[in-house]
Amino acid sequence: MTTTKIRLLSWLKAHKDQWVSGEGISASLGISRTAVWKQINNLKAEGHRIQSVPRKGYRLTAMAELMAAEQIQAHLQTRILGRPALEVLKAIDSTNLRAKALAGQGAAEGTVVVADAQTHGRGRRGRTWFSPPGRSLYASIVLRPPLAPAQAPQITLMTAVAVAKSLQEAAQLDARIKWPNDILVGDKKIAGILTEISTEMDMVDYVVVGLGINVNTRRSEMPEEIQEIATSVAIETGQEANRAELLCKLLSRFEACYDLLKTSGFGPVMAQWREMTDIIGQHVYVDVLDKRHTGVVAFVDDDGVLVLKDHQGQLHRIFSGDVTRIRPE
Question: What is the pLDDT of residue 233?
Answer without folding.
Answer: 96
